[in-house]
Task: inverse folding
């Protein structure tokens, strides 16, 4: 190593130490917690009972765990499919460089930077049985015959939280795809028009392949962000009714901070992490592949 | 003739595009509009049928009564939010930006591993550090202080800022650095006098996003801070509205107030938000 490179450590070490203390160590600590028995009595005790994989086995035997896993996948896939589909549609629709289009594109980003807590309360109001605009609008459009108790049954509550989450996530998809679209050389479209390509051919033979790396990144990141979603649902339904919207994140939180079984919560969080880690690994591999290209 | 036909359809396509765009725009921002318009209603007009799309008798009563209630100090919670977001921003920027430079410029042992660790940290679910940090914070005595949410927010903001700035620094030609060094700058001077001014844009993004990380959080304060006088707006709104349930018009008024800082940041920093979203996300 060159001498001049050694000074580089001084730049990196402070941030690394910080993250080591409050991120990397907790990650390891989480692993340790998950093989111990730690509840509110033993929380600060020196010696903790070692239970090995007991907490994991307990999770796998628990109906609530499988319910939460299923809900997490339904929520994630439902959210991503629509966020991505609608985001893509809007990105293409708003792909024009005029002032009014720029203005509209910009304003549509607000849902993304709003605190999730506020969006969640807003959607709780929108899906409220009485006075909620969702019911009124659907009644007016003839989509439903009588008011639906959106947040009071498991399935409809899941639909409600997914819709709320879609609304928050669309801007992320839209902005990333928009900037991808802006990077496609217009000559490609011009020559395609000369060759007589129609709008769908242009979309599937030029737009989609050109945006491939953006699309991959968005889907992977979208998966990660949605899979670990917490506040939106916690505020909107609290995981209810009857655990109908309880995701793995909420299950972990409930075990730890409501039932005070910290090690059980840690085990569930670890399982969640392993799933995300697999996806993350896949993503970094993908980035590595592209860098190599 | 044929050429006119093509022009005609192109023009018509443009009109269709514009109208479709406006309709989609209105649908997308409707919830925001609904948040605002409901905050101007009375509880009676919220439940009126058919619903009042435009408040018939707009009033600020909901704001007044929400601000005057004594169960939760809203103005105090705004101060807390600003304090938490500001500290999150300062700590994250001070730690992440030099680290990004270090990882972008120098050949360091284990560099790839460090970058990988930061990348993975970005993907971790909040809940994952929530439990261990709960115990750690209790042990080191910062449980139930502002530090608990601030440091937790930093664990989110630092990896993001670092990855963002690293892409920025990698984009600045190495020769500029070397020229500064030949002119007699040491590594730190070249960083502060040459690199930072050149990456002002990226710095702005980093500032905006780490502030937003701090402002958006609700969970950390809810979990680590039991004293409600230290809660930020988000935790306050959850507790007041979500848990106990209040009149909807007041809930929406509270929501509108909570969004105001975000809107302000958005109006002045819009350009950087777009950049942050694209740069930070695509290349992770």
Result:
């Amino acid at each position: 190593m060159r001498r001049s490179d050694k000074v580089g450590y001084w730049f990196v070490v402070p941030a690394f130490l910080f993250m080591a203390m409050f991120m990397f160590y907790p990650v390891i600590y989480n692993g340790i917690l998950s093989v111990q028995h730690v509840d509110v009595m033993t929380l600060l005790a020196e010696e903790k009972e070692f239970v090995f994989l007991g907490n994991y086995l307990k999770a796998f035997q628990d109906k609530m765990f499988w319910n939460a896993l299923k809900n997490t996948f339904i929520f994630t896939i439902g959210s991503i499919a629509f966020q991505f589909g609608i985001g893509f549609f809007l990105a293409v629709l708003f792909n024009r460089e005029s002032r009014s289009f720029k203005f509209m594109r910009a304003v549509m980003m607000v849902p993304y930077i709003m605190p999730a807590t506020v969006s969640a309360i807003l959607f709780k109001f929108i899906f409220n049985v009485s006075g909620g605009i969702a019911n009124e609008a659907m009644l007016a459009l003839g989509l439903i015959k009588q008011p639906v108790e959106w947040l009071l049954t498991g399935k409809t509550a899941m639909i409600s939280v997914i819709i709320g989450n879609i609304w928050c996530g669309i801007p992320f998809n839209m902005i990333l795809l928009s900037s991808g679209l802006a990077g496609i050389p217009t000559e490609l479209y011009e020559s395609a028009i000369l060759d007589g390509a129609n709008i769908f051919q242009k979309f599937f033979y030029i737009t989609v392949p050109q945006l491939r790396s953006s699309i991959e990144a968005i889907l992977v990141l979208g998966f990660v962000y949605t899979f670990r979603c917490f506040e939106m649902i916690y505020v909107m339904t609290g995981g209810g009714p009857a655990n109908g919207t309880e995701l793995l994140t909420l299950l972990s939180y409930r075990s730890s901070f409501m039932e005070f079984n910290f090690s059980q919560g840690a085990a569930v969080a670890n399982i969640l992490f392993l799933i995300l880690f697999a996806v993350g690994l896949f993503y970094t591999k993908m980035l590595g592949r592209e860098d190599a290209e | 003739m044929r050429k006119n036909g093509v022009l005609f359809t192109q023009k018509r396509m443009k009109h269709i595009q514009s109208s479709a765009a406006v309709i989609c725009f209105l649908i997308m921002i409707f919830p925001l509009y609904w948040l605002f318009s409901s905050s101007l209603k009375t509880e009676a007009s919220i439940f009126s049928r058919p619903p009042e799309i435009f408040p018939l008798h707009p009033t600020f009563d909901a704001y007044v009564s929400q601000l005057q209630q004594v169960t939760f100090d809203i103005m105090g919670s705004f101060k807390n939010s600003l304090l938490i977001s500001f500290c999150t921003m300062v700590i994250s920027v001070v730690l992440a930006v030099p680290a990004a430079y270090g990882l972008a410029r120098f050949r360091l042992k284990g560099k790839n591993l460090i970058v990988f660790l930061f990348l993975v940290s970005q993907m971790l679910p909040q809940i994952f550090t929530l439990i261990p940090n709960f115990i750690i914070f209790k042990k080191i005595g910062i449980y139930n202080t502002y530090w608990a949410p601030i440091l937790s927010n930093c664990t989110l903001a630092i990896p993001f800022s670092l990855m963002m700035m690293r892409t920025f620094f990698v984009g600045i030609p190495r020769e500029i650095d070397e020229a500064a060094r030949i002119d007699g700058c040491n590594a730190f001077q070249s960083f502060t006098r040459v690199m930072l001014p050149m990456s002002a844009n990226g710095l702005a993004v980093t500032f905006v996003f780490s502030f937003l990380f701090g402002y958006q959080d609700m969970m950390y304060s809810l979990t680590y801070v039991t004293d409600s006088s230290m809660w930020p707006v988000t935790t306050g709104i959850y507790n007041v509205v979500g848990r106990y349930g209040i009149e909807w018009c007041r809930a929406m008024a509270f929501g509108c107030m909570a969004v105001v800082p975000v809107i302000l940041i958005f109006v002045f920093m819009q350009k950087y938000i777009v950049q942050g979203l694209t740069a930070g996300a695509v290349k992770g």
In short: DSSP finds 13 helices and no strands in chain B. Chain B has two domains: 2-64, 68-282. The two ends of chain B are 51 Å apart (CA to CA). Residues 68-282 of chain B form a domain with the MetI-like fold fold (CATH 1.10.3720.10).
